[in-house]
């Protein structure tokens, strides 16, 4: 398995509020499943 882009920690740190919104977190969770 290879990295296809930035990891979630880097993306979260780059966001203005330093966190994901609830809807983004839910979408990430669905993709992981």
From TrEMBL:
Organism domain of life: Eukaryota
Protein name: Uncharacterized protein
Biological source species: Parascaris equorum (Equine roundworm)
